Amino acid sequence: MLKKLLFSVIVIGLLVVSCKQSGKFEGFTKGPNNVWYKAYTHSDDTSRVRFNNFVTAKMRYYLKDSVLFDSKELDNKFVFPVIKPMFQGDIYNGIKLMSPGDSFTFAVVADSFFYKTANLKKLPDYVTPGELMYFDIKLLKIQTQGQYKKSENQKLQREKVKQFKLLADYVKENNITTKPLESGLIYTTLQKGYGRQPRKGDMCQVFMKVKAIGVDYNLYNNFDKDPLFIEYGKAFDTPGLMQGLGLMHEGEKARLIVPSNIGIGQDGKGGAVPPFSTIIYEIKLDKLKTKEEVKKMRKAQAQKNEKEKEALKNAEPAKIAAYIKQHNITVEPTASGLYFISEKEGIGAHPEIGNTLSVHYTLYNLKDEKLFSTLDNGRPFKFVLGSGTVIPAWEEALPMMRKSGKAKLIIPSSLAYKGVEKRAFNIPPYSPLIIELTLQDITK
Predict the structure, then answer these.
(1) How many domains, in total, are found in the chain?
(2) CA distance 343 to 341
């Protein structure tokens, strides 16, 4: 009798746990390996995903109140390998239920994803322990490893042909008659130098501008900044650069056209430069120095920079005060020092921590010179409020705004980049900033 009673208690306990789990995943179907899913469309294709396959999909994953990833930001397609699951109910077990053309939503416990799949030591601040995380997936294509490798190789070959044509067109359009060296390097002297050529171990003090054919912006340019030091004979950037540097004389300025075989090869440079691109260096070998000389120079420069930074820091309050007076600004700063000037109220509720915000902004310095604007490319900036991915001024200002609202921010450096120089935006250390902000959208 006691055994029967004990067995009944265990069964009831298991039923209670099962009901709680089912309630948490209400509206979802439980599949093999504790996968919880909703199927929206089933295609006639009967092929299924296997581990180690590569899949192409449209994917969005999100918490209840914030989108964490959307493949729309990646030309609406996302390619990834299907690895062995990290836990029961893992998304990789879910994808195995799908065929090309299927659209599913999967639900997993967020803790499991962040701890096991993402391998984090603690949950992000915007995640509530135990909450669900959702994956919307439309499966477009399944490839074996061999098929994927073949398609990637074909893609690389197409890119190679394209980049070689771009190089040929560049040479023709710019009337370049210099014959390439045996390596493929096209070396042209722009200004003669009269010093010696570098020897192994020399520190080359250079100024250079770097571009890639087909890319409409500079990858690097320090002609109006501090010199760059390159140790001759030690790998730096590309083999073509080092070869060209070895041909130069102290004081010389040259143009190096570096094809991919002695340049970036088939890897490209992240997402900035495609594979097989040709790199063009406009470079001046200003001086040749010893390592000891450079060490002393760097020490002296560091001391000078610290003094300049301290002067900028001390001058900042007066600069902000002058701007406030010049522009007849009457609002009082917040306790942090932020000036928040509402220019359009907006509609609806204020954003909350964990919401995904879509924002257009224009960045100015105190001279009212525009440094950057998302309006120029028409693409708003998206981020999760409270995730720590933006400057503190935004985290403070945006909760005061509503959808479609506009505001002007006068930001002390303590709420922006502090003593860090942001060369990409031409922002010196301890620079106050002006930002015109429009809150385009709020996703809960």
Answers:
(1) 3
(2) 6
pLDDT bracket for residue 423 (50, 70, 90): low
**One domain for residues 329 and 407:** yes
Whether 184 and 225 map to the same domain: the answer is: yes
Whether 61 is in a domain gets the answer yes
Three-class HEC string of 120-173: CCCCCCCCCCCCEEEEEEEEEEEECHHHHHHHHHHHHHHHHHHHHHHHHHHHHH
Cβ atoms of 357 and 442 within 8 Å: the answer is: yes
Q: Which two tokens stand for residue 143?
A: 């490839």
3-state secondary structure of 39: strand
Alpha-helical runs (H) found in 282-336: 291-326
On whether residue 21 sits in a domain, the answer given is: no
Range of the domain at 371: 315-443
Q: Which of 380, 342, 385, 344 is nearest to 359 (CA)?
A: 380
Q: Are residues 187 and 115 in the same domain?
A: no
Q: Please state the rounded mean pLDDT for residues 151-177.
A: 94
